[in-house]
Amino acid sequence: MALDWRATAVPRWMIVGEWRAHPVRIVTAVVAIAIGVALGFAVHLINASALDRFARGLATVNGGADLRIAATGVQGFDERVYPRVARLAGIAAASPVVVLHARLDGRPLDLLGLDVLRAAAVTPLLLARPERERGLALFDPDALFLSRAALAGHHVGDHVALVVAGRVERFAIAGLLPGVDGRALAVIDIAAAQDRFDRLGRLDRIDLKLAAGADARRVRATLAATLPADAAAASTADDASRTDALSRAYRVNLDMLALVALLTGAFLVYSAQALSIARRRAHFALLRVLGASRAMVMGQILAEGLALGVVGAAIGIVAGLGLAAGVLRLVGGDLGSGYFAGQSAPPLLFAPGAALGFAGLGLAAATLGSLLPARSAARVTPAVALKALGDAVDPRRRPPILPALLLALAGGACALMPAVGGIALFGYGAVGLLLAAGIAAMPWLARTLLAPLARRHFAAPVVELAVDRLWGAPSQAAVALSGIVASVGLMIAMAVMVASFRGSVDAWLDQILVADLYVSANGDTPFDPALQARLSRLLGVGAITFGAQHPIVLAPNRPALTLIVRADPDHADPPLGRVVPPPAGALAVRVSEPAVRLYALAPGATLTLPLGARRVPAFVTAIYRDYARQDGAVMIAGHDYDRLTGDTARGEAAITLAPGADLVAIQEALHRALPAALADEVQIVPTRLLKARALAIFDRSFAITFGLELVAIVVGLAGVAATASAQTIARTREFGMLRHLGVTRRQIVAMLGIEGALLGLVGGVAGVALGCGLAQILIHVVNPQSFNWTMDTRLPLGLLAGVALALIVASAATAMLAGRRAVSADAVRAVREDW
Fold first, then answer.
1. DSSP sequence for 277-310
2. Does residue 635 surpass a pLDDT of 90?
């Protein structure tokens, strides 16, 4: 009579019994899944919460208008645009705005100059609440209204000094901005802003409220035909797109890196399930004899994997929620990137859809990890499996390599595909496919690497036994190697990528930091021509070159480019590739790598720049490397910028000392030469310190990367230990037979140590080679498509050798420790048949 599989308690007994018999291996697999889900979910929640706060803050600054007209450069646009726009059909109300970047007590804040009467109809969120009893009115030129985030350390009624573009003006805090939360914002009367900060006749923004029933697209098209070259129309959708683009690549890369632990967990589930099935092959064969079909056996094993996934995903979601809340409370939502710097710690924004998504990924990882072992168990012939407890692969057959080659070819094809929506989806797919190819090649690689040893004869029996065992059981060796190769390959890939990135940044800094001292002003603080001349005449200054950086907008839905003003761009940064001389009379510019990728430029191309009140065609002569500005930059000669804009002020300087000049003395002389108002607004930094700061920023921005990588390594090494231990314990009967043949316990432990060392060696070689291959995808595909810059490959040879040596030692030690336990059982009981 056939066994009614589903009507019995056998499936439940098998799951519970296996978990009781080998709790460490099961717990390791569950923890790996839980860590992967927790890290991915936590990173997603942190980024979503920070991005939501940032977007809300930006929406607050923009006041929630239906449309707005924004300046494309730092000089604003003519205020005569305002009455023309206000009379256009479809516009119910318009509010002129002056936007300034100020500093209060050294802290940056956005300063808006508003026409209160107009703002009340268009952007009521920005309206102030004055303290009437203090006698300060909304139109008082000395009245300042602050958000609660900007008020820190002050009280209503205090007199404070605002610094804007080197100009210091004092105001009295007249009240609060009740509609502004979580962002440092200040509001003054628009007339006071124009008068006191040299903005007469200029506006930076016009907020618009559309009439009821007006077509926003039509109104925007009308505006585009009306506006001057130094202004452009934008909408809240543009704000959302630009805000998302600022940090999208960083957020996606962190999410993907967090899922590395989950991917490692999937291989650990595979390893645990494969070892469990190898040990229980006779059990499943007996069930087949009793009437269970292949589909039922496969379903049983998949159910075991799914149970692991359910437990791991549930723990991971709870842990991820707690981790996200803790990180937001302790360090905020910046995660070292600098994209959300200056924002207050955002509240945790729970995302049910993301929770379900990451839980589903955990279940998928566990299920996929069980799929191949399940298929292997279902295909085994019952009559053979009841007695044969060796390797599932006939040692006379050469393990196939074709599946691995097909996976590698598919990965290479994905690596050639372009980004999707600015995200390197195919690049990440290539990483996954190449990793799968490396795992699939393990049986073939283990047999190939061990073949020279297998053909030799060793005097020591334990060495002979260890080599013959591994060579004759390639599938079991591959199971043990899968966790090693997965964790080591991903770790090496990230390590090589980060080392290459840091090395390229270090070399780039050496190329561009050629002066002795660098002077830079905070924000828009300028060095006017008189101050430039005074600094140039200082004793000990051999040469000084002035420059500036200004944001310019080429498209309202994209982040601003940086316009870099240099005295001699041709000698500022070394070009990448060819240099094309400009046509006679053309405006020559250089563009950075990110600008080339974002705007499809190349040497010889032409782009239009908003300079002054005109849009000027510029000829691209060369491309240069710039790791400081992910959104792109355009470099223009100082004399061209002065001619086109009339702006001769500069915000930074590079100083080369005269022979024999003292560095400290020059720094002190520079401080004395600066106006008192600029004393706290200008930084004077030696080249060595500036480079150290830049590299410290790099290391801080990759701190979360190193943390996630460390977690993935720990999970992988724990899986290696659990795999080696489980595989050793599963061979207790084999050890008993060897004991009957006269092999001592010490010799068996030594044999296991040699096996572990050989596995560690093969895994180390395969993992390092695979990791270096994966690193090329990260360096030459993922990073250019995500961050728009390229880098040179640099191999951390010391780390590679250390990882390989550590793997050999760890694998050997783990196998020997597990072997001491396995050989302690009585030799007679170990080989006794149970039926």
1. HHHTHHHHHHHHHTT--HHHHHHHHHHHHHHHHH
2. yes
Tokens of 205: 């923004």
Buried b / exposed e over 463-501, threshold 16 CB at 10 Å, is bbbbbebbbbbbbbbbbbbbbbbbbbbbbbbbbbbbbbb
Q: What is the β-pairing status of strands 614-624 and 606-611?
A: antiparallel
Give 751-764 pLDDT, tens digit per residue.
Answer: 888 888 888 888 88
DSSP letter assigned to residue 557 = T
Residue pair 500/733 in contact by the 8 Å Cβ criterion: no
Task: Quickly count helices (H) and strands (E) in the chain.
Answer: 28, 22
Asked if 129 and 173 count as a contact pair (C-beta separation under 8 A), the reply is no
For 733-785, what is each residue's pLDDT tens digit?
777 777 777 778 888 888 888 888 888 888 888 888 898 999 999 899 988 88
CB 471 within 8 A of CB 451: yes
pTM of the model: 0.76
The DSSP line for 151-214 is HTT--TT-EEEEEETTEEEEEEEEEE-TT--SS-EEEEEHHHHHHHTT-TTEESEEEEEEPTT-
Q: What does the radius of gyration of the chain's CA atoms come to, in whole angstroms? A: 33
Q: Which two tokens stand for residue 170?
A: 């004092």
The pairing of beta strand 167-176 with beta strand 129-130: antiparallel
**3-state SS assignment for residue 797:** helix
Q: What angle do CA 38, 44, 46 make, to 5 degrees?
A: 100
For residue 634, the surrounding DSSP H or E stretch is strand 633-637
Please, are residues 502 and 509 in contact by the beta-carbon 8 Å criterion? Answer: no
| Amino acid making up residue 370 | S
